[in-house]
Amino acid sequence: MRFYETATNRHGLRHDPFKALVAPRPIGWIGSRGRDGSRNLAPYSFFNIVSDSPKIVMFASSPPKDSARNAAETGEFTVNLVSRQLLLPMNASSAAVPYGADEFELAGLTPVKGKLVDAPYVGEALAVLECRVTEIMVPKTLDGAKAESVITFGQVLGIHVAEEIIRDGRIDMSRARPVGRLGYMDYCDGGDVFELMRPERPSSE
Question: For 113-130, what is each residue's pLDDT tens digit?
Fold first, then answer.
């Protein structure tokens, strides 16, 4: 088995395998509004749920980008589900454009104002989380230095779910087909879904 120390990062491969090994990663498609009123939409693969009670999500911007700036300025953002049919618009919204450019317009998407937050969400998304910022932090390294990432935490105030992905009282992931980020330029979706139950604890004799 190949081993390398991350301090030198001499892995001997064409590309750093770190992010490919932590996969698939859900994509947080973050909708936000700047203090100047401009709309922003950008995908983040450093995204996840961190709490269920209350419902809290996070996205990490490395280095800090427009979504983190807007969330810090306004205290609000949305998370839009990237389903398979929205893969190309999601990719279009990832383009490096000047601050203030409208990625909703760039990607041909419909911006909708949230019910509980002023941040916009994607009208075509099959699910949306409306969030308010609870905490913003910069992680530290072992020697106490600041990492280049800014992590934004948000409490989920409201959730939109399209009826078409609900079946038998559950979200049907084969219909939602959420896109995940793998390594490099690779992605996956929820097209191949299977159920696996947790093992039961053996009864004591």
Answer: 999 999 999 999 999 999
57 is written with which tokens? Answer: 């999500």
- β-partners of residue 58 are 48, 153
Measured at the CA of 204, the angle between CA 201 and CA 205, to 5 degrees, comes to 145
Among 32, 56, 62, which Cα is nearest to 44's?
62
Cα–chain-centroid distance for residue 162? Answer: 19
The whole-model pTM stands at 0.92
Residue found under tokens 């980008």: 65
Please report the sign of the dihedral spanned by the C-alpha atoms of residue 10, residue 12, residue 14, residue 17.
negative
CATH of 27-188, one of 2.30.110.10, 3.10.180.10, 3.40.50.880, 3.40.50.300: 2.30.110.10
Going by C-alpha positions, the residue among 189, 187, 182, 186 that lies closest to residue 18 is 182
| CB crowding 58-92: b at 16 or more within 10 Å, else e | bbbbeebbbbbbbbbebbbbbbbbbbeebeebbee
